[in-house]
Amino acid sequence: MTYEAITVETNAQGTKGVTLLTINRPKALNALNSTVLAELIDAFAAYQADDSQLCAILTGSGEKAFAAGADIKEMSDKAAADFYLDDFFSPWTSEIVKKTRKPWIAAVNGFALGGGCELAMMADFIIASDNAKFGQPEIKLGVAPGMGGSQRLTRAIGKSKSMEMCLTGRMMSAEEAERSNLIVRSVPQADLIADALKTAATIASMPPMATIANKEMVNSAFEMTLDQGLIVERRIFQILTASEDKKEGMEAFIEKREGQWKGR
Ligand code: CAA
């Protein structure tokens, strides 16, 4: 598929196994219109299907925004019936989050507001530039988060801060986001992609099946009771012990060499 609103680079900047996806509407601060939505769903499916790619990064083009939200201009004339009948925003969660079993990182390079903040929170983790700003300002438009903000932000930073952000629409700085555990770390904007690529390269160097398993386990912590999650963890661990990569990984450790992964 040829894309018009995103770019995709496999083995990005020479980093083997790492795909860089970039939302490319800088004049609209990378607002998420239906073209971006459709193209991201396609690109994430292609990333998931490509066995040579083991970690992805999602960022925004330009220096100002990761994504300033769902496209307000596109939404302004839509009727409620259209939003409801199309189950508006549902594909993001069902297609991207549920079907992307391999890891991906959001590299937030500026505003991440509304759907932009929600999209970043769908990632496995967020690295941000020091000028990044996060927020759920939908209330100022007479609406509310629609792509998971009220749920994922609350799970990430707790009720008080999340409630305050949703009710006031205020923005959170990268420094506050780091302090509040919304992001892993903030780095100078000029270093953001290099930092994300380095982190993604480390992930891509791990045994691929164990990577998917680790992601599945951590995500289970959000979906299940502690007892259920612990059972899932134990079962996945036990399954991994039957893998060729477990044999190789443990032998490589004992022989003091790097493991050669088969992904099985
Ligand atoms: N949708 C459509 N266009 C947008 C946009 C959005 N979410 N955000 C910015 N743009 C456009 C602006 O309309 C403007 O276009 P023009 O040059 O054609 O006028 C261009 O991007 C640049 O924006 P500004 O001139 O506003 O830039 P600024 O630096 O003065 O302000 C900003 C930056 C504070 C991010 C401001 O653009 C802003 O508040 N944007 C909207 C943020 C927002 O409300 N997001 C939530 C959207 S609703 C949502 O996401 C629902 C959901 O839960 C999924």
3D structure, described in words:
- It is a single chain.
- The chain is α/β, with parallel strands linked by helices and 264 residues long.
- The protein has 12 helices and 10 strands.
- It has a 6-stranded mixed beta sheet with strand order 1-2-3-5-7-10, with helices on both faces. A 4-stranded mixed beta sheet has the order 4-6-8-9.
- α1 packs parallel to α4 and α10 runs antiparallel to α11.
- The longest helix has 16 residues.
- The relative contact order is 0.12.
- The mean pLDDT is 96.
- Acetoacetyl-coenzyme A binds next to α2, β6 and α5.
Short summary of the structure?
The chain has helices at residues 34-49, 72-75, 80-85, 90-99, 115-122, 149-157, 159-168, 174-179, 192-204, 208-223, 226-240, 244-254; strands spanning 6-9, 18-23, 55-60, 65-67, 104-108, 111-113, 125-129, 133-135, 171-173, 185-187. It is an alpha/beta fold and 264 residues long.
Residues in helices, as a percent range: 40-55%
Question: What hetero molecules are in the model?
Answer: acetoacetyl-coenzyme A
Low-confidence runs of at least 5 consecutive residues: none
User: What topology, given as strand order, has the largest sheet?
Assistant: 1-2-3-5-7-10
Structural class: alpha/beta
Share of residues in strands: 15-25%
The global form is globular
Order of helices and strands: EEHEEHHHEEHEEHHEHEHHHH
Distance between the termini: 30 Å
| Biggest sheet details | 6 strands, mixed
**SS elements, strand count:** 10
